[in-house]
Amino acid sequence: MPMTPQSIKFCSLLLGLVVAATNARGDAPVNASAQIDAIIQLDLKKHKLQPNPPVSDIQFVRRVYLDVIGRIPTDKELGEFFADNRRDRRARLIDKLLESPGHESHMFNWLGDMLRVKDDYYRIGKTWTFHTWLKLQLRENRPWDELVYDMLTAEGRLGENGATAYLLRDASMPLDSLSNTLTTFLGANVACAQCHDHPFAEWTQRDFYEMASFFGSTAFERVDTRKPAITLRDKRFSKANLVTLLQPNMERVVFDSQRSTVFPEDYAYDDAKPGDKVIPRFITWGDEKETPLTGKRPQRLRKYFAEWMTSAENPRFAAAIANRLWKKLFGVAVKEPVTDLDVLGDATNPELLRLISQLMKDVDFDLREFQRIVLNTKTYQQQVSVTPPEGEEFRFPGPLLRRMTAEQTWDSMVLLLRGPKIDQLKTDHAPRMQRLVFPFEFTHDRKGIEKDREKIMEFAKTLLPDGGASDGKSGRSLFLGASKRKVKLRGEDSWLRASELPQPMPPTHFLRVAGQSAREITDDGSTEGGIAESLAMMNGEVTESLMTSSLVIEAARRKNNPVEQIALLYRTCLSRPPRERDTKQCIAALQSGLDLGDIAWALLNSREFMFIQ
What we know:
This protein is an all-alpha fold. The chain is built from 28 helices and 7 strands.
């Protein structure tokens, strides 16, 4: 039967719909990547700039390994990539790395800096359950909005629910906690509004207290367990033992009907009086104010807040995390600083910020998928640019030339020491806390707790290896070892990825010397470098071990001749083969009495090793 014009038109329309559906399923990341490139290309053209040339495969592989899993590639991994002759091998490598255990480790380091993750919070004790919870979210690729929602609504004991550690982090400073929350997750610069109307933004002090009142009926119980421990102690268990036992049980987040938020005594504006109860109301970035939430159940206020904050309709939530991830991959955000998105139009490229914010919503806050889109852009896969002069905006002709973070440097050096098995070496100390959780309810009042002494003591005895009593004077109690673990910081046992070591490391450790955050301030990690880091690279314990007893040196020594030995060292340290002049210089060095360890030392201390090109 011949086809009529109507049937031809219908078939064409149907074919178009099929193609569109196929693109939506299979090519969505590619199309989204192209959208990013198009916006950046227009912006560059507008400013009479050109995009950087495409990056070479050698540079791409090293860059994407560092940006996605936080370490350099091995010689074997390089070989596998170059043995793949498929046209989409770069996209395939991106997919592989995003699904790898190394990505979980690298993202934990990144979030650890953002969320100020520490092993110990002041007077709270160990927070290992939080570490384990956060790593599990990353492993399961939980959407960002769900992860943040869980932290904001978490309830219960720290020993049982690791997510409570986020709110317990600043439990003694609830207003600072709200300020940090709004700044971190919304890029809302509200610190000034705690005390007075913001002088440069639309935030008022009333706005701030109306937001704080969503947490007004929540008790963040950051108990000083030394006092109840003194009440409970006797010859069976010492105060120190009981402090550790009580911490996972008494540090908790709970609803308290007796609590509410009131305006401060020094409130100086005419719209309320000091001491008045604050009615919750959401801040908006438009002309109209939200209606106060009168008559709402106090138990649900924190959930209302979390739903509002993490909603796709919130104009700042998606923008904040998209802007942060862009900075992670490009070295500079679309809108700097990442903690101040009050005026989105001030971004270097407002259209780009709008697009990546929308893309974050389109992928349902899937951080892996968002990174997949950005990593597949031509812009990311172009050569780097140096930092522009002060006052000149960076318009993304390619990524910025960046120095490795402390964690990337450490993880890369540990890789050379132990090999790729470091990605699989995971630590989990949460069970040491979880086993201390009481399987019963008890009195949280530090004086009234005395009536629960016997059942607490009986439970404590079950934690001892022999089920017997401990010496109260000596504090002999192996259940205590669970929380008082002394980390060995030297030798092979400490050659673990940064995510598996104490958070953060002591100030004298290589990680801290190289710029790891002390985790007291959000985003406090540094890549500035300096004399202390240079000395650690030249004379530190890690470098000394690399020169003598590392896997990379052992592998090089097994090669047949100096040319092959030198080639292996260059591929493992710099992710590229040596140039002819490099080989000649290294052979001359070996003939003059230096050894392979000295060559490795020189490569590790080069700018080429320390920078992400």
